[in-house]
Design a protein that fits this description.
Helix 4 packs parallel to helix 6, helix 6 crosses helix 8 and helix 8 packs parallel to helix 10. Helix content is 61%, strand content 0%. It has a domain of 106 residues: Leucine-rich Repeat Variant (Alpha Horseshoe). The longest helix has 15 residues. It is mainly α. The mean pLDDT is 92. It contains 12 helices and no strands. The two termini are 26 Å apart.
């Protein structure tokens, strides 16, 4: 599975809402995409709008509106915004799922506790997505979380995602544990992945 690089969503302007919360919520289902987008822009000023905005993601077909919703949730910046986005990691809509991964990356430490819990999810894809998100979060705990995956996760695809991520942020003292993990995944691909990571870490 391809590693999802960190990207950026557009920033929401800081000017205040033009309408009331109720007025803007009523426009989320308007037939006109521009009307919906302007309503979402205004709703970024209302923490109470988190759940309606998240619910709208499941229905929204317009890419610009969807991006504005995610950007608004980032701006609101409350734990509920993270909680309501997590289920979208299981979406069959690849574009939406990837946009949610980017949004959670940009939430940084706010997203970290819930993303950490995903590393124990029974679904291997969800664990991989969690690693993708962690790779974009700048926090001192991230390398240790990735190393835990490398040392303990039993699925080679999850392990390889963590190896790829640690190659970007790992330190030389991690190298012995990275190399030792090959005892569980001693394949040509695994050996190549470890060799690449070690070379990247050691410079």
């Amino acid at each position: 599975m391809a590693f999802i690089k960190k990207a950026s969503l557009p920033q929401v302007a800081n000017d205040g809402p033009e309408n009331s919360l109720a007025e803007d919520l009523s426009k989320l289902s308007d037939e006109n995409a521009d009307t919906r987008r302007h309503a979402v822009h205004d709703l970024a000023a209302f923490p109470e709008a988190v759940q309606p905005l998240c619910d709208r993601l499941a229905l929204e077909q317009d890419v610009a509106v969807r991006t504005t919703i995610l950007t608004a949730l980032i701006k609101i910046g409350v734990p509920q915004a993270v909680e309501c986005l997590i289920p979208y990691l299981g979406s069959e809509n690849v574009a939406l799922r990837n946009d949610v991964i980017v949004a959670l990356q940009q939430m940084q430490q706010l997203a970290l506790p819930l993303v950490e819990k995903l590393l124990e999810n029974p679904d291997t894809d969800i664990r991989i997505f969690a690693i993708n998100i962690l790779a974009g979060i700048h926090d001192l705990h991230v390398p240790a979380l990735l190393m835990h995956v490398i040392e303990h996760d039993s699925h080679i695809n999850v392990w390889s995602a963590a190896i790829e991520a640690i190659a970007e942020i790992g330190t030389p003292e991690m190298v012995p544990a990275i190399q030792a993990s090959l005892q569980r995944f001693d394949t040509v691909y695994a050996r190549f992945a470890v060799q690449f990571a070690v070379q990247r870490i050691n410079g």
